[in-house]
Amino acid sequence: MFQSTRGLATLRSPLLRLCSSELDLFLNKTVANPGRKKSTWDLLVYRSMATMRRPLPSQGPPLHAYFLLAIPVTAFALGCWQVKRKTWKEELIEHMHRRLHRNPIPLPLTMEEIEKLDYCPVVITGHFDHSRELYMGPRAQINVENHKGGEGGGIFSTSKAGYNIITPFKPNDRDYYILVNRGWVPADRKNPANRAEGQITGEVTLNGIIRLPEAREPFMVKNSPERNVWVYRDVDKMAQIADTAPIFIDAGEDSWIPGGPIGGQTNLSIRNEHLQYILTWFSLSAICTYMWYNQYIAAPGLRGRLR
Q1: Which residues contact 283 (CB under 8 A, 6 or more apart)?
Q2: Are 176 and 198 in contact (CB under 8 A)?
Q3: CB count in 10 Å sphere of residue 284
Q4: CA 107 to CA 117: how far, in whole Å?
Q5: What residues does 242 pair with on adjacent strands?
Q6: pTM, full prediction
């Protein structure tokens, strides 16, 4: 009798599953008829029907699929972490602006107090020692719109590059020097000889903002103390080179005098791109979860129903 593999595949096709009621009627008249001799074909049909009625085995995703779940889970965790980072950054920005609008206070006497007053306005009286200047840059001029002689504007200004002039300053009420960022000058005026009229002598009172050390960003060029070039604010190292206390103050906008550095060079822009990161990580988690479900849950179930 006919027993080809093609016939067996046909009997197990989805089409026969849809016609199972008709085949039941056929079996009752033929295969199940006790008075009829069973042929090989009858037995083949009967076994195929029994196979189709048998419930499909319940098989979960393979073991390696659970390791792949680490991708959406990790992305979701990073999204939650960015939510916390966003809250922290917004509180930091609010705290900074709230502190900037305080009335200036005298410079605290102890380092413990100073270290808690980043961005806090202070007022100091004393004199400069221009013989020990440090140069931080090259960098663009910022917050320059209200300065006489200023050009460009904003940290991403197209104005020419220059340097911030960091000068030791001796407060009258201290027996040590501190570091004061007097402001920005173009590169061709980095040499003090080219701005002699701006080298303040005698006693001066300054409004400024306390600044703490800043960490070196990834891939940022390192400072070169031996060449007196500072890319970022390493207060401890600067103080060691200039022989001052590790206290750093940005002079305010009103410190500018003709021919001198342009004050008010405090960078008040703090990047807050955490909302973008939140959307990115949560979207990645959702997409990867859908792909995982479609690959290891939905697709095997569909294939099982079509066998």
Answers
A1: none
A2: no
A3: 17
A4: 10
A5: none
A6: 0.64
Element (H, E) at 205: strand 204-211
Amino acid type, 184: W
- Per-residue pLDDT, averaged over 66-82, amounts to 92
What is the crossing angle of helices 274-293 and 70-100, to 10°? 170
Band of pLDDT at residue 271, cut at 50, 70 and 90: confident
Give tens-digit pLDDT for 14-73: 555 555 566 566 656 655 555 655 566 666 666 665 555 555 555 667 788 888 889 999
Show the tokens assigned to 182: 């007097």
> Residue 163's closest CA among 229, 221, 226?
229
| Pair 104, 119: CB distance under 8 Å | no
Tell me which residue has tokens 């990161």. Answer: 277
The H or E element spanning position 162 is: strand 162-171
Taking the CA atoms of the chain, what radius of gyration do you get in angstroms?
A: 39
Continuous H helices in the chain: 5-11, 14-18, 20-29, 40-53, 63-68, 70-100, 111-114, 235-242, 274-293, 299-305
- Which among 21-30, 47-56, 98-107, 130-139 has the top mean pLDDT? 130-139
